[in-house]
């Protein structure tokens, strides 16, 4: 058995959250290691390299806010970033701050157990390495555990089977007969990207989607120069807004204007592009008022009818329920169904009965013969990566057991009772917002908690890492660009606090999240946002729906009031 490696902190996950958390803790002069089951940095963007992968957050915000020089100089020239561009950006941040030397890849967390006597976690990995950190920070990703539907005969298919989250490099689909199961954000993107090159494309659709144009195009001359002058205020606005997508959310009710004006506002939003813009920049009540939601939904349905020329295809693509799933945008999704080689199967009319060696058999007996089946079936979101491994707290119970009765719960979306010094980035009941600003907020809060624990005493009225300001200044880096750490010896120094939330704090936060989402139409719609996309999974509240600005205020309140909601005890 390998020797135990003592650390101040172990970070699990090498995406947006893990990269920033590694840097922050190194800047605090701690000994830190990052592990990931992947082969390199990138997180979601390492795994999701399917054709058409892109962010639906505009380029100017899909990055870190704390390196102002990089914000102003890093090259990009379109309103939206493609997957490979995001991966390259993250790799550049890693190189810029010398983070690679602190990372270990192809290493999966298999078991973690809190040792109350020692005040440390014992973390076992797939490689046999055993780590003994004081602090365990999990950056496992919101959407990272693949969801495969249970379809009979899947193992008999003679062609190629691929999940979009494990897309093989160099896969050539030209001239192939391809079936895509799933039409959420990923399905919409991959269908749009491959339609023009395959021989035949069949979309197996369970639920039609409301999608609006992304508006992706090259930014005009002078755009970057103007943005660079305003970047500080841009980030301040984003972090102090509801959804942090870089626009002012509307305060105007849908029926405060007449029909002609409503149509004009929707049309302008359609032409401008952006799923979150269409839902939240147009009017303020689309997400919770049924009549207002229907106004937006009927506008999108009319657009689908105008775009898709085949009446039968248009009928199948036309949504009928609330416009209350994750707002989607696309670069020409509906237009692809005007191609002769692209068709759509309504799985509610003709469900899949089984997969055969030749393809997919439907309930009417028809077999769609295929060379490739693509599963764009999404993820066991939010808690899926936590329940698949044995992370056990003080009482020996796992997170899966802790969450068995009422579903995934937490305090602040970050910590769980009886799991001392374990902090989650994008854990259950964190804010439903644009992810990079939320990730930064949580990383900075976790870093503050760890700083308090290292001091061995609480602070009152202390300065908070960026929770009230906009963009942060650069972190501390030594002369050769390497983040400083203390090495293994430093990991055993001095007294530190063990921190964990009280059960009362978790219950109050869970109750708050429940009440905040009670009137939302998102809650009345089956989707991954409430865990209802996975067969057999009990739907539960997964998010805090009061927005990023209110969430940041809640975290600031905790830090300025003796870590309100946390139990604290000293380990030496």
TrEMBL record:
It comes from the Eukaryota. GO terms for molecular function: flavin adenine dinucleotide binding; N,N-dimethylaniline monooxygenase activity; NADP binding. Residues 462-495 are annotated as: Disordered. Transmembrane segments: none annotated. Keywords: FAD, Flavoprotein, Monooxygenase, NADP, Oxidoreductase. The keyword NADP applies. The keyword NADP applies. Pfam families: FMO-like (PF00743). Residues 478-488 have a biased composition (Gly residues). InterPro entries: FAD-binding_Monooxygenases, FAD/NAD-bd_sf, Flavin_mOase-like. This is Cyclohexanone monooxygenase.
């Amino acid at each position: 058995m390998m020797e135990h490696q003592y650390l101040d902190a172990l970070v699990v996950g090498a995406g947006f959250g893990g990269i920033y958390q590694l840097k922050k803790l190194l800047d605090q002069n701690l000994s830190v290691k990052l592990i990931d089951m992947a082969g390199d940095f990138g997180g979601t963007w390492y795994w999701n390299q399917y054709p058409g992968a892109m962010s639906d957050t505009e380029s100017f915000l899909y990055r870190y806010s704390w390196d102002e020089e990089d914000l102003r100089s890093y090259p990009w020239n379109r309103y939206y970033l493609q997957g490979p561009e995001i991966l390259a950006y993250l790799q550049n941040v890693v190189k810029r701050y010398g983070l690679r030397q602190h990372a270990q890849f192809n290493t999966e967390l298999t078991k973690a157990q809190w040792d109350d006597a020692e005040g440390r976690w014992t973390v076992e990995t797939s490689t046999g390495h055993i780590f003994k950190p004081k602090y365990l920070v999990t950056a496992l990703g919101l959407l990272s555990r693949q969801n495969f539907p249970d379809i009979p005969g899947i193992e008999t298919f003679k062609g190629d089977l691929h999940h979009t989250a494990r897309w093989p490099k160099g896969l050539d689909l030209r001239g192939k007969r391809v079936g895509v199961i799933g039409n959420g954000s990923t399905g919409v993107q991959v269908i749009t990207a491959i339609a023009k090159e395959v021989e035949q494309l069949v979309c197996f659709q369970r639920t039609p989607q409301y999608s609006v144009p992304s508006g992706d195009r090259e930014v005009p001359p002078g755009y970057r120069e103007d943005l660079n002058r305003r970047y500080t205020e841009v980030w301040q606005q984003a972090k102090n807004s509801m959804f942090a997508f870089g626009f002012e959310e509307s305060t105007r009710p849908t029926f405060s204007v007449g029909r002609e004006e409503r149509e004009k506002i929707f049309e302008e939003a359609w032409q401008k592009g952006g799923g979150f813009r269409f839902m939240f920049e147009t009017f303020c009540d689309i997400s919770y008022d049924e009549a207002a939601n229907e106004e937006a939904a009927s506008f999108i349905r009319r657009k689908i009818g105008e775009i898709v020329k085949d009446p039968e295809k248009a009928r199948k693509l036309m949504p009928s329920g609330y416009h209350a799933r994750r707002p989607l945008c696309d670069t020409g999704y509906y237009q692809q169904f005007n191609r002769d080689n692209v068709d759509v199967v309504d799985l509610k009319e003709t469900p899949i009965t089984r997969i055969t060696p030749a393809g997919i058999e439907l309930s009417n007996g028809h077999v769609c013969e295929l060379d490739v089946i693509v599963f764009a079936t999404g993820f066991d979101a939010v808690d899926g990566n936590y329940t698949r491994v044995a992370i056990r707290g003080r009482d020996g119970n796992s997170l899966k057991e802790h969450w068995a009765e009422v579903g995934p719960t937490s305090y602040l979306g970050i910590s769980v009772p009886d799991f001392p010094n374990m902090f989650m980035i994008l854990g259950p009941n964190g804010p439903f917002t644009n992810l990079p600003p939320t990730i930064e907020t949580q990383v900075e809060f976790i870093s503050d908690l760890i700083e308090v624990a290292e001091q061995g005493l609480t602070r009152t009225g202390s300065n908070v890492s960026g929770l009230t300001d906009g963009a942060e200044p650069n972190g501390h880096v030594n002369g050769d660009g390497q983040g400083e750490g203390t090495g293994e010896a430093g990991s055993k120094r001095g007294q530190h606090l063990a921190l964990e939330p009280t059960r009362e704090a978790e219950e109050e936060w869970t109750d708050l999240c429940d009440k905040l989402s009670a009137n939302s139409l998102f809650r009345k719609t089956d989707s991954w946002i409430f865990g209802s996309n996975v067969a057999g999974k009990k739907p539960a509240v997964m998010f805090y729906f009061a927005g990023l600005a209110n969430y940041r205020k809640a975290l600031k309140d905790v830090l300025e009031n003796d870590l309100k909601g946390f139990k604290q005890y000293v380990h030496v």
